[in-house]
Amino acid sequence: MGTAGRITTVSSNGEYTFTKPNRDSITLLAGLGVEGDIHSGVTVKHRSRIAQDPTQPNLRQVHLIHEELFDEVRDAGFEVRPGDLGENITTSGIDLLALPTGTVLRLGDEAVVEVTGLRNPCLQIDNFQQGLLKQVVGRDGDGNVVRRAGIMSVVRTGGVVRPGDTITVDLPDGPHRPLERV
């Protein structure tokens, strides 16, 4: 068992909207995502991905964002709350962006997700708050793109997830591959 963090908020939405309302709990369904969420399914559900190839596997079933990001963007003058950026699970105490591909996250008593990659932030973020996109996507000293708008995962084992639940991190074996956008 690895490091532990905490779920602070859970969110879902059955409609295509940018933000997702906070819930008392969400139910993760193995191989699908969040029950009743518009992005749940075996194949891609994000509109841009459907346009490219609707038969692609859905590697973006559950979106997680670290609550610490909200503090960082607040320092730059932006007010962002859990669910505002469309995430399903808001976390605390885990450096999500540093996790390698294939990391397993145990959420609460039952649910298990596998990390597939980084969320690729889109222009909708600037529609939500002008200038916010620049806060969550930037470049490092070497000119590489740095995406900070959370990570994506697939559901391996279903279960109910609630605010206050613990998150246990199990890193994959062998050479770790850094997260890439999915």
How would you portray this structure in words?
The chain is globular, with a radius of gyration of 15 Å. The strands form 3 sheets. A 7-stranded mixed beta barrel has the order 1-6-5-11-8-7-13. It has a 3-stranded antiparallel β-sheet with strand order 4-3-12, with no helix packed on it. It has a two-stranded antiparallel ribbon with strand order 9-10. The chain has 4 helices and 13 strands. β3 and β4 (33-34) form a beta hairpin. The chain has one domain: PK beta-barrel domain-like (M1 Pyruvate Kinase, Domain 3). Helices cover 13% and strands 32% of the residues. The longest helix has 8 residues, at 68-75. It has helices spanning 47-52, 68-75, 124-128, 132-136, and strands at residues 4-11, 22-23, 26-29, 33-34, 62-66, 89-92, 104-107, 111-118, 137-139, 145-147, 151-157, 159-161, 166-170. The model has no long low-confidence stretch (mean pLDDT 92). It is α+β, with helices and mostly antiparallel strands. The two termini are 26 Å apart. This is MOSC domain-containing protein.
Label the overall shape: globular
Give the mean pLDDT.
92
CATH classification, class level: Mainly Beta
CATH topology: M1 Pyruvate Kinase, Domain 3
Structural class by helix and strand composition: alpha+beta
Looking at the overall shape, the CATH architecture is: Beta Barrel
Give helix and strand order, one letter per element, not per position.
EEEEHEHEEEHHEEEEE
Strand order of the largest sheet: 1-6-5-11-8-7-13
Q: What Rg do the Cα atoms give? A: 15 Å
Major sheet description: 7 strands, mixed, barrel
**Total discrete domains:** 1
Total strands: 13
**How much β-strand is present in the residues?**
25-35%
